[in-house]
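Appendix B, Record 12. Input sequence as logged:
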Amino acid sequence: MTKRIGALLLAIPLVGAGVVTNGIHAAAGSAGTGCELTGAIPEKDYPVVVEREHITLHIGDLAGSGYFFSSSALEQYLGRNYVKTEYSFYNPTEERVDMKLLIPDMGMPDYVTAGYSRPYVSISTDGASAEYTPRYSYAGFLGGEYDLSDGASQISDGVAGDFYFREGLEVTEWTFSVAVTDEMLEQSAKKHLSLVVRLSCNPITTRIMSSKLMYAEISNGEPCLCFDLEKGMNKVRVAAVGGSGSLSAESTVRTARFGGETLHSMVAVSTGVLPFREFALRNRPAGCEISESDWINGFVRMITECTNQGCLVYAIPDFLTENSFLRWQEYTVSVDAKERVLHTVTTPIFPVVSGEEYQFSYLLSTDQRWSDLNQFSIEIVTPYHVAETSLDFQRTEGADGNVSYAFRRDFLPLGELEFTLTDGTVTGPGVTSSAPISPSLRLAFILLGVLTAAAGGTAVAVVVIRKKKRAGSGRKDRR
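Logged structural output:
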């Protein structure tokens, strides 16, 4: 029952490098990559109530590949395209509550080439700017999707997310050195040699990983690891993370992965025992901005996601690099007993560009981490045509040429906010829409005219726009 995982493992570095750029994860788009947004996420459960949350998405320009030509043009875009999320927090308890909150720092999408050194995120409480610290969570081997709520739960000053890994855990390592000669290769019909390592360990209390890609099988209730050998000197490290009772290893050099003629065999002697903390931090670069606790938690998450058959970890420590992480900004909001504060988060907004469609996303499901949320509202302000949306908005035309789309509830809606804007041509900041009006929207305008003429009132209509369905949704709560 050989488990072949070579194709998966070889794909991992390529996929990971494509998804995480400069330590910043970005959601994938077909022609231009944008950034999926969300508001403040509490690190844990707090008794503070969100009495009101209002999200304003102001989109004055549409952007696409090759759109920005200078830093000044980018700065102009950021001043006209942003999301402002306002929270009214109330503390019903008798004591002050200090909340640690997180904002994902998505940075710039791939089609923005101009440099920009100022902070992307603006955070304030009752008008006073907040000081924030960069934190990091494991982004994983992704294909363009990431669970932000799950990522926020990884951030901890201790080991988070897995009961197995804990302080005081030890790692036993063995080093296998094999010099492959032409004479040895001649003894193999396929000119192929393999190192097979057989381990005796308790799969409940042990995790096995190696410094090289491996194949694995279970033989007589014990894991057997197979490593392909090349001509010359080969060194393979095998590590047993944790473990109770006896740990032992033996190895053979064979003419086939599992089977074939045995050319050499030996009982391995452990080359050392070290703390798990030291083992997890071994590949962390000197001067790395990612804290030791965040790096260890990323290492634990990688091991957890790649563990199979109870104890075999199909990943090597070198897979974890600085590009494996998503950057966050962490800060504190304090609310005194029986008091209220107004908290505001402002971030830039960028679309996923697909042809002449500009797709925007704002995650609402992360708000489910609050203890309660009483009033909720969204407003989209833009001169462009809203072609698709996941929610029903009330449309109001403004005197400045912008159109406001409003949504209100007395509770948090399920799902996420997604909408698509269209425009015939995009020439730069300040461009107005030249897209044709869709038949459904034209009908809405006709009905609006009839209703306005009859009522003699303000031109306000409820616009029910064709709902957008998420394609290929396969996430835990959003992916």
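The helical segments are 6-19, 71-80, 148-154, 182-186, 276-280, 292-305, 439-455.
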